[in-house]
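#lab-general

N.A. 3:47 PM
ok so I finally got the sequence cleaned up, no stray characters, all 117 residues accounted for. can someone with queue access submit it? mine expired

B.Y. 3:52 PM
send it over

N.A. 3:53 PM
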Amino acid sequence: MILMVVAMLSMTMTSYAENENAENTLSVESYDMSVNFRKLAVALDMTGDQMESVEEIHRMFCNEMIQAAYASKDERQKLVDLAVKKDLRYMRYVLDQKQYKKYQLLLNSTLINRGLK
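B.Y. 4:20 PM
back already:
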């Protein structure tokens, strides 16, 4: 009887830990903001120089989003907001007004679809 209780408790704890790990992995994956730069360049009609700058800016943004994913729950949204504001500020200098508005739309849609906004 005691062995049965111990077995049930250990199975319960194992399944709980698996669910928690799966939830954390899913959460971290939603912060991965990697994009196909060729498709982005076509969508925004960027020049070669713009593409290089956008790629570097976006690389920094991706790093900041991954840092936010691993931050504590209390700081996570604050770090995401900071990363987005910084990304938009830098993109404003590189893209023209039409490209920038389209980029804002794409970024906003991505954040909403991933549950980050």
